[in-house]
Queue: 2 jobs
Job 1
Amino acid sequence: PHLQSNAHRFAITGPDVPVEPETALALNMALHELATNAIKYGALSAPDGQVIIEWRSDPERPSLVHLIWSEAGGPFVGRPSSKGFGTRLLEKAFAGREGSGVRLNFAREGVRCEIIFMAKFARPAMSVGAAQASQMDPPAFLPTPAELGLGSQGV
């Protein structure tokens, strides 16, 4: 809703980048978490705050994409005293995947988050029958409730 009603507060630039479904899910979760925090505590909690989202291919490794979320014009931002749900989610969603990672900076002028992930490149199609699909494990990149500090009760 913020993007539609406050489009002037966003600058979004970058080329089309194909991604695997698992990466799309991780990016969706990450951007949702960043937006939620920007609304509650960051740039989008202030009338003149702005969010800049940009991405580009890595010049040395074109299969890697760098997405940068930057906030400006919001209240003073300080490093939290402990890692909360959002920080753990961001770190775990992209951990352990080749070349992927997250750099989170709580700069005075606003949060800056760099997410590095792999673009999807053409490869041979894989066919999975219905019986095989029902037995497949969930994507391994998703953090468990325990890894997110939620204990065994889940969400």
Job 2
Amino acid sequence: AILKRVFYDKKLLLLDKTDNELARNDRDHSYHLYENTSVSLVTETYCDNEKGTFITEKTWKPIAFGMPFVINCNIQQLERIEELGFDTFRSVFGDYHTNDFETTNDNIIDIIKNIDNYESKELKRICRKNWIRFMNLTEFDFQDIFWKELEIDYK
């Protein structure tokens, strides 16, 4: 019922794909989708922490496009993103993650519904900082990040 309010509210723009479209290319980067949205809602694959802190392309897309984002993930994933030098907007949106999944979802819904009330200069500053950090990653940075995520010693 909570998510239904967000997804069927006619004031919100839903940018999603059908199952067939996802099966063809689940890592699609459609710039026009990002330029027409205010915030990216990322639902990470492993929100329950059973798989550790694995971070998917779902999180990297808004960073690469310089977008503000909120992530429905476990707190360890959020901390790992910050450990990698990226800002997760907690300074703007507050600590919206709790140990209760439903409360976290309610907090995320409130952020999305009130996105126009947040300080746009600060959001833009953080987006730019994240984008610069992402663009300055080297091949070796990516290897360190992703091999660590997979818990493989590649050296």
